[in-house]
Amino acid sequence: MFKLKHLEKVQTRKELIALAKSEGVNLKPTLKKLAYEEELRELQTELALLLQHIIQHQLRVAVIFEGRDAAGKGGSIKRFVEHLNPHASGVVALTKPTDIEKGQWYFQRYIEVLPNRGEIKFFDRSWYNRAVVEPVMGFCTKEQYHIFMSEVPSFEYMLHEDGIKLIKFWFDISKDEQKKRFDSRLENPLKNWKFSPVDLKGQELWDENTHYKEQMFTDTHTVYSPWVIVETNNKELARLESLRYVLSQFDYEGKGSTKATLQHDPNVVYKYFRKSKKLDL
To answer: Which intervals hold domain Polyphosphate kinase-2-related (predicted)?
Structure first.
């Protein structure tokens, strides 16, 4: 262990690393964590500047977070909103529809929570529940599914024409990584609440989820509302790169005033490319 007198003499990061090396202490995990926290803070500062731009210019922005169970959607949303003005931002995480809502047009309850002028809203799952989760789990009929899929492009075109900037993220992880995260949730009493009956089927129905996911991309990826894939097993990287992507979509006052890298990594975040052969149900 470091002796206090040795630490007191350290003046620079380089000297600290040299001291740790001489004492046989591995600082790499700590330094990596500190670098992540610093980069995150700078990107969050940029996001705060973007929000001021959204307020000033009365923009309406909706960011959808979809993806595999345990892919890191909630953790990313938390990093997006934790330092934003709550009067101009918010998280939308609707519970299952009520009996009254079940009798309404499927999109109606989502329309009611879309961003107003000068707001950015983050959707922790969205109307796309009906594109993957519901058909896989048997929560909707085939007819309801097909009606929904035929209506989505028109619905999102109306949002586009009405001036709403819609960003659609799909967070993807490997099957092995998903299992690790499920196991971690079960072992951690602070994360037990995140584990649901649907999660129990996540591994078993992996291929079915993949099928409906690809069908969703094929039918709902458009020029005005493209799907943006965030593909990595690294939670921290997913958070940083999704932040960078959102920032890249706007020109705002003070952009780049921090030391943050604002260009997202195209190997991690990229727009969906249509398959040459369409999937058929």
So the answer is: 31-255
